[in-house]
Amino acid sequence: MIILTGGAGFIGSAVLRLLNDNGIDHVLVVDNLGSSDKWKNLSGKRFADYLHKDEFIGRLEHASNFDKTDAVIHFGACSSTMEQDADYLMRNNYRYSQTLAQWALARNIRFIYASSAATYGDGSLGFSDNDDTTVKLRPMNKYGYSKQLFDLWVLQERLRDRVAGLKFFNVFGPNEYHKGEMRSVVNKAFIQIKETGRLRLFRSYKPEYRDGEQVRDFVYVKDCAEVTGWLLKHPDVCGIFNLGSGTARSWNDLARAVFSAMGKPTNIEYIDIPDNIRDAYQYHTRADMGKLRSAGCPVEFRPLEDAIRDYVEEYLMKNLAHV
């Protein structure tokens, strides 16, 4: 059995689809559906059972039906970079992850978990997933700090040769519709263009970047699922790895790709960055993918234009929210 926390979430449900496509359905989905529409991400997918995240962690030490677990994919966490309750983040993202990792490792069960590129903070130390760099990072928000703490715990406990962590960069694609303001700019752009015929992007406040030429490492959720699937098949591959496309593309590139996929002329309006986030705004991110490549990962990441076209034409234009 595979335990998949966050299995109804954005990336987790894409991994569940991949598992199903590979004939794997003996999966325990762990999540917190609440009153959200996340349940739709489970529709049409096959899994053995579902447990609320609190019930699951409470039963972990005593439930014999978990004894046949082959792997834990821990993608369940609060993913909002705007979350302000630091105690909640410590419980949900840090302590919960510790408990689950200790349980899995005590039983020699494969443990794959989600970290985040938010751990890199302002990017002043670069975007290398080298362990020596990881210990020096200073995240800029509470969410990033909660993820950084768990990465540091893995290193301090000398577990880097026993687990696989993934620092996700700017992920976009189907299954994200329930995320509200945390949805990708691709998703928001599609809606904005459909409603107004134009897209608003932040202007630049640095002379070396023209408006809209700030860059990010955008990565398609289907590619993230493929990498996770590869790690599942290669339990000997361990460490904390970046997961981005390895390419820095501008917001203007992204905008043009969305307009093109929608068959509409490019119409971009540049607006001020709000004062409360202006000082913390990142102008450049790009995942150093050398470590994952050196580990043998063969996944080829889709070019931004191809990924956006697939997302727009096969999902957003057809009102299909999930894979």
Summarize this structure as a short list of keywords or feature phrases.
323 residues; alpha/beta; two-stranded parallel ribbon
**Strand order across the biggest sheet?**
3-2-1-4-5-6-11
Largest sheet: 7 strands, parallel
DSSP helical segment count: 11
Structural category is alpha/beta
Cα-to-Cα separation, first versus last residue: 22 Å
Low-confidence stretches: none
Whole-number radius of gyration?
Answer: 19 Å
- Name the overall outline: globular
**Average pLDDT rating:** 93
What share of residues are in beta strands? Answer: 15-25%
Instruction: Bin the helical content.
Output: 25-40%
Series of secondary-structure elements, N-terminal to C-terminal: EHEEHEHEHHEEHEEEHEEHEHHH
Number of strands: 13
Layout: helices, strands, pairs:
Blueprint: E1 2-5, H1 10-21, E2 27-31, E3 49-52, H2 53-59, E4 71-74, H3 86-106, E5 110-116, H4 131-134, H5 142-156, E6 163-168, E7 170-172, H6 185-196, E8 199-202, E9 215-216, E10 218-220, H7 221-233, E11 239-243, E12 249-250, H8 251-262, E13 268-271, H9 275-278, H10 290-294, H11 304-316
Helix pairs in contact: 1-7, 3-5, 6-8, 8-11
What does this molecule look like?
With 323 residues, this protein is of the alpha/beta class. The chain is 37% helix and 16% strand. The protein contains 11 helices and 13 strands. The strands form 4 sheets. Strands 3-2-1-4-5-6-11 form a 7-stranded parallel beta sheet, with helices on both faces. It has a two-stranded parallel sheet with strand order 7-10. α8 crosses α11.
